Amino acid sequence: MPIHHKLQALQQEGNFIRVGLIGAGQMGRGMIAQIAAMKGMQVVATADIRTENAIHAYENAGFTSSQIVQTEQLEKAERAITQGQVVVTFDMQLVLQLSSVDVIVDATGIPNLGAEIAWKAILAKKHIVMLNVETDVTVGPLLYQMARAAGVVYTGASGDEPAAIMELYHFAKTIGFQPLVLGKGKNNPLNLEATPDSAKIQAQKVNMNPKILASFQDGTKTMIEMTAVANATGFLPDIPGMHGPTATVDQLTKVFRRKEEGGILHSYQTVEFVNGIAPGVFAIITSDQVEVHAELQYLKMGDGPNYILFRPYHLTSLETPISIAKAFLEGEESIVPYQGLIAETVTVAKKDLQAGESLDGLGGFTSYGKIMEAKAAKQTRALPIGLADASLRITRPVKKGEVITFDDIEQTKIQMIWELRQLMERDASIYKA
């Protein structure tokens, strides 16, 4: 039965999936509005340090002031939800504790916060949907194993590019194609020196946090997203940082060939990004069946031997309800690190760094992310970008463009994501490639 039929059936029975949202930024607000238009699902509680963001999101989705209850008290929140109201709070712990929540969605985009949310959601035996790829590429293998042991679903979110790529990958694998290259378009030219200051004007135009925009411009977000795809499929970056050519969709099968075939790749089963096809995602495929090639050419898929499956959109948090429904109704995930830690997004100095300087996280002034094979990252003690926040201080000079290692930093504060990473590192099997 299709998911929308199952949701309609829930609604007809007087039931619905009760969603707890943490983070009412752009992604969270869009999700509240989308779910308000659906059957069989409702965001019953939302936490954000700026509670007005959550209140406005509910109001914009059609809720009246009498339907919105702002509280930090557990009993009051439980009672409000039972009475058909929705809860707004600045305390994410409240949302995690609510017995009247079935599925938690993390829309914070903050690695350490996401680690805490996922960990506590799983301990509470709640499904957890991550609109937070940053956490997943840092400690996702551990969280996935933990969720399976607890009998709940841990998953990335439909609509994010990694999950959209996985839809193409699973489709290809299911019907017997051989995926060769998996990738996405990049929305803006790669600028390794992008900072919140340089991104400020553009961010104002699109009503976006300058630091978040800088993390897109400097490539960190793309590296993280393709790391998630690598860890889900076992595909590797062809070179550290990937190639990132400029191309149109109809050029991709020629550009992403092996060098001996006239392309730029050393090998297949790789992850990549492209300037020029955003917001699309793609999978380059082939077949060893002569009749399949003939059929694909008849269907105007190209001359072969490689062909492209292209999806020209991804709807970010507007598609997240699909992952919520799949988790609750079918016990299925959209994307998880099935293969363990295959790739890593490591931390690279954005400028010359001196001893005593603190790092400042994704999209900041001090560092950017670069994808590389996880085993190579481990051997060189490269620092994962998901750990590189303001709790770390540089202990010796690091030149611009150099990878920052564990030997170059010291902790000034213990973060949960560090504790989970250390726990994960005790299991050597996470490095499967």
TrEMBL record:
Coiled-coil parts of chain: none
Residue stretches making up the SAF domain: 344-410
Residue ranges crossing the lipid bilayer per the database entry: none
GO molecular function: NADP binding; oxidoreductase activity
InterPro entries xref list: Asp/hSer_DH_NAD-bd, DRL_cat, NAD(P)-bd_dom_sf, SAF
Protein name: NAD(P)-dependent oxidoreductase
Organism: Shimazuella alba
